[in-house]
């Protein structure tokens, strides 16, 4: 399918390995309603993969009201506390179908694995899911300056693995994340709907459809 043999796979977290994307949605929806901004699944697609303050700014812009910098920090904290309460009970049972098997398949084949999540909660989430040891490198909000769709997070992950962009492919469920992977000049495997992830190279419904052989030929 492509001319490179891959040596590393870089995974997004929310919506790919676990359904925390749904918890982000619930927490943002509650916040949006509290400030009088309309919020639905379509609007939420724009927030996926976007960092906390970036997401908040999009919601507040939709409310048509002005908020001070202090108000914004308070609102971001409120959303995060709500989100953290929703993920408090995460366990390995919350891995999406095929997630654990995909990681095992990739590592058994001798490829390296990295996590690329702009979430400040990413480390806590992978620990609760019991997969923290499955990554050679974890790149989260603390290690990057620019949120997806900037390629920085995927390029930082590849560099952390000691690989070039050509040697890696990225796995993402968000429009911003697919754009980040393509901006990093990597092959982009989308998780979700081809109608939404139009810029991905290939889209599968979930990791239960993942087979490494499809990407190594
Ligand atoms: P936090 P990902 C992203 O994680 C989510 O997709 C996005 O919806 C969320 O706003 C962002 O993390 C920040 O999360 O508020 O926990 O720092 O998709 O890059 O794994
Ligand atoms: Mg995601």
Automatic annotation (TrEMBL):
Keywords: Carbohydrate metabolism, Isomerase, Magnesium, Metal-binding, Phosphoprotein. This is Beta-phosphoglucomutase. Gene3D superfamilies: HAD superfamily/HAD-like, Putative phosphatase, domain 2. One of its GO terms (molecular function) is beta-phosphoglucomutase activity. Belongs to the HAD-like hydrolase superfamily. CbbY/CbbZ/Gph/YieH family. Its cofactor is Mg(2+). It comes from Undibacterium hunanense. The keyword RNA-binding does not apply. Coiled coil: none annotated. It is an enzyme of class 5 (isomerase). It catalyses: beta-D-glucose 1-phosphate = beta-D-glucose 6-phosphate. Its EC number is 5.4.2.6.
């Amino acid at each position: 399918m492509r001319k490179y043999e891959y040596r590393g796979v870089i995974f997004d977290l929310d919506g790919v390995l676990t359904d925390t994307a749904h918890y982000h949605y619930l927490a943002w929806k509650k916040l949006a309603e509290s400030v009088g901004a309309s919020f639905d699944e379509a609007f939420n697609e724009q927030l996926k993969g976007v960092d906390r303050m970036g997401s908040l700014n999009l919601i507040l812009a939709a409310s048509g009201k002005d908020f001070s910098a202090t108000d914004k920090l308070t609102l971001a904290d409120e959303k995060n506390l709500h989100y953290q309460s929703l993920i408090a009970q995460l366990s390995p049972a919350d891995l999406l179908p095929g997630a654990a098997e995909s990681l095992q398949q990739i590592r058994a084949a001798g490829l390296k694995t990295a996590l690329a999540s702009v979430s400040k909660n990413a480390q806590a989430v992978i620990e609760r899911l019991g997969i923290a040891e499955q990554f050679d490198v974890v790149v989260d909000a603390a290690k990057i300056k620019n949120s997806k769709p900037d390629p920085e997070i995927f390029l930082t992950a590849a560099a952390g693995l000691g690989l070039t962009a050509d040697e890696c492919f990225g796995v993402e469920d968000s429009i911003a994340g697919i754009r980040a992977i393509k901006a990093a000049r990597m092959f982009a495997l989308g998780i979700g709907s081809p109608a939404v992830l139009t810029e991905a190279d290939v889209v599968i419904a979930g990791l239960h459809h993942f087979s490494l052989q499809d990407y190594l030929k």
